[in-house]
Design goal:
The structure is a single chain. This protein has 655 residues and is α/β, with parallel strands linked by helices. It has three domains: 222 residues, ANL, N-terminal domain (Rossmann fold); 187 residues, 3-Layer(aba) Sandwich (Rossmann fold), CATH 3.40.50; 169 residues, ANL, C-terminal domain (GMP Synthetase, Chain A, domain 3, 2-Layer Sandwich), CATH 3.30.300. The chain is 41% helix and 21% strand. It is globular.
Length: 655
């Protein structure tokens, strides 16, 4: 069995690892064996603050002891809300020491959404990053009125909160100080806290994206998390002592696995940027060895490079394009199995000194040895570009239900269309319906209070991923899209909208695309342009605009977007080519319910909100006056009115 092989491999590679480890025992071992080694760094007001493994453990135990005094009990689910901060990571581990369960939410979650989570999970305690998040939590208390069971709201950043203290609020530092005093008074308490958790305890309650309704709770146990992280290490995807930047949302499985699970198991140095807005600047100072981000983030990075080059002197532009074109051709040949000649290697070295090295240094990626991407398909142009720079960019595959660590591309067998091979200890097969099935000790045990959903997902010893795909003869996995999204046109042509949407979004001019065509005669698409990329293109091409709405409707922008659609149409069979499109005058917004917090489309909402536009496209109209409802960050609502163009592609002209 692969699982037994994985355990044997783990014993051979890491004889000090214990199969019964939990996150707290691993943290305690790090603090004991490497007390003065830096475990975490945070950039605060321009200065990097460091926490050693001993500091880390002291904070966790102090917070746990203080929390218990406040009334947190075993099994309590505690809401975590905010951006990446050391205190929030320490808080989650402190909860785990009490056998309580951290339940992180996205920092831009609205009070109404939070209220639903608080009610479903019976949350009595919440931990917020700062005044903004505390205000939202207090608003939840107001929304729930006498029904609210929230007893305490703990905050990290005291600015704006100390002077106007609310009876429900208390500072993180005060909780830690109280706990540390208790630890001094009770000498056996620290060890007792470390031995409470079990490998079978829930370490985090994460959540599905909620594309079809209320997000499902996904409990991940210590064993799931450590098994997943150690599997990745056994396969060579992580190494001990990685330098990692924690900037992804703490509510997302990728951050919990990388910044807590793998960081504890392999003693990463976790670096936290000052703010989300400064993360790219801070990345240069951090210079990580391990870097993970979504395909969209890699694409945005490429856009910034292209914008910068377009604004450079002509000579620099020519030199950049020469060496990048050379490197791109070299990488294509390498992926086809062709080794570079000695002359090409020498010229690539010259390019490294003049172009590739400086670009990587500018991005903060000069020390990255293990760059990864996952979550959706990545565009060939983007993927090839970063590999041409000399980064060994590879794709992961996984979901929250399997700790995001199921398969990855091997270093020397990268293919543009696959997501790689299963990790040791993970088994994957394809059922008769083309669905990807999976099993392994990294796979969760079932949804939170959702027995019917659990029974549907976990059947016959296998997790049904909900993804359609196939295995190539060499064992590499190809993912096509969601099984639930396989739909048919009126002519019974089968297609997966996300497959086409991903290929459209390979263009850095397109931020979002929603393919329509279910039970219709042909395919159409709603496009949300990428404001930064199209805005730069407009400036370079003397296209005037003053807003997103105005830019999206400019005839030349429609021509630009049509070019991108025509490229995708060339890859599609004629019956599935896109015949008409509209550029929406606003972006799809999570606050408007159109996308999830991870930017997955909520198709039912889009179908309802834009029903008039959809009907206009299928009735041959050339334009429509439309009012889009919008919700501002303050919670207030409004409308955005605009006359929208509807344009044909060449596929429509042929029919």
């Amino acid at each position: 069995m692969q699982q037994l092989d994985a355990r044997e491999l783990s014993r051979q590679l890491h004889p000090n690892w214990d199969e019964n480890d939990h996150l707290l025992s691993v943290l305690a071992a790090n603090a004991k064996n490497y007390p003065n080694q830096v475990a975490m760094r945070e950039r605060d007001q321009g200065i990097w603050q460091e926490y050693t493994w001993k500091d880390y453990l002291d904070q966790v135990l102090g917070f746990a002891a203080g929390l218990e005094e406040l009334g947190v009990k075993e099994g309590d689910i505690v809401l975590i809300l905010g951006d990446n901060r050391p205190a929030l990571y320490f808080a989650m581990l402190g909860l785990i020491a009490l056998r309580a369960v951290p339940s992180p939410a996205y920092p831009d979650t609205t009070p109404e959404e939070l209220s639903g989570q608080v009610e479903r999970e019976k949350i009595r305690f919440a931990i917020g990053e700062d005044q903004e998040q505390v205000d939202k939590l207090l608003h939840v208390v107001d929304l729930q009125g006498d029904q609210s069971i929230i007893q305490r709201i703990i905050y990290d950043d005291p600015r704006g909160l100390e002077q106007q203290a609310h009876p429900l609020t208390i500072a993180y530092e005060r909780v830690v100080e109280s706990g540390q005093a208790r630890l001094q008074a009770e000498p056996d308490l620290a060890n007792e806290l470390l031995t409470r958790p079990s490998i079978h305890d829930i370490a985090a309650l994460l959540h599905s994206s909620g594309t079809t309704g209320v997000p499902k709770g996904i409990p991940l146990k210590h064993g799931h998390i450590l098994y997943g992280a150690r599997n990745a290490a056994n396969a060579g995807y992580f190494t001990e002592g990685e330098i990692h930047m924690a900037y992804l949302p703490i509510a997302w499985v990728g951050d919990f696995i990388f910044s807590i699970g793998a960081a504890l198991a392999l003693r990463f140095i976790v670096n936290i940027p000052e703010r989300q807005e400064t993360s790219q600047h801070d990345l240069r100072e951090i210079a990580p060895t391990l870097y993970f981000c979504s395909p969209r983030a890699w694409s945005n990075m490429l856009t910034r490079i292209q914008v910068g080059i377009d604004e450079s002197p002509p000579f620099k532009q020519r030199m950049y394009h020469h060496f990048m074109n050379f490197a791109l051709n070299l990488e294509r040949n390498r992926l086809d199995g062709k080794e570079p000649s000695m002359g090409q290697k020498i010229w690539h070295w010259v390019g490294e000194q003049l172009i590739y090295g400086p670009v990587k240094d500018h991005l903060g990626l000069s020390r990255v040895k293990r760059p990864y991407t996952a979550g959706e398909a990545i565009g060939e142009e983007v993927f090839l570009f970063f590999r041409a720079l000399g980064l060994d960019l590879r794709q992961f595959y996984g979901q929250t239900e399997n700790c995001a660590l199921a398969a990855a591309q091997p270093a020397n067998e990268v293919k543009l269309h696959t997501v790689g091979r299963p990790f040791p200890g993970v088994e994957i097969k394809i059922n008769d319906d083309g669905e990807i099935l999976m099993r392994g000790d990294n796979v969760f045990d079932g949804y939170y209070e959702k027995p019917e959903d659990t029974a549907e997902t976990l059947r016959d010893g296998w997790m049904h991923t909900g993804d359609a795909g196939y295995l190539e003869p060499d064992g590499q996995l190809v993912v096509l899209g969601r099984v639930s999204e396989v739909v048919y046109t009126a002519q019974k042509e089968r297609f997966i909208p996300t497959y086409i949407e991903n290929r459209l979004q390979f263009s850095h001019y397109i931020r979002d695309a929603c393919i329509l065509g279910r039970d219709r005669d042909y395919l159409t698409v709603i496009i949300c342009i990428d404001f930064q990329a199209v805005g730069h293109w407009a400036t370079e091409n003397s296209v005037p605009y003053s807003s997103y709405a105005e830019l999206s409707q400019h005839p030349k922008v429609y021509g630009l977007i049509q070019e991108q659609i025509e490229k995708t149409n060339q890859l599609l069979p004629e019956p599935l080519q896109i015949r008409r499109f509209v550029n929406l005058h606003k972006e799809f917004d999570a606050n408007d319910g159109e996308v999830t917090r991870t930017r997955k489309l909520r198709r039912k909402v889009i179908d309802q909100t834009y029903a008039a536009i959809i009907d206009a496209m299928y009735h041959g109209h050339e334009q429509i006056e439309f009012e889009a409802p919008i919700m501002y960050e303050t919670g207030e609502t409004g409308v955005l009115k605009r006359t929208l163009r509807i344009q044909n592609t060449s596929a429509n002209k042929r029919n």
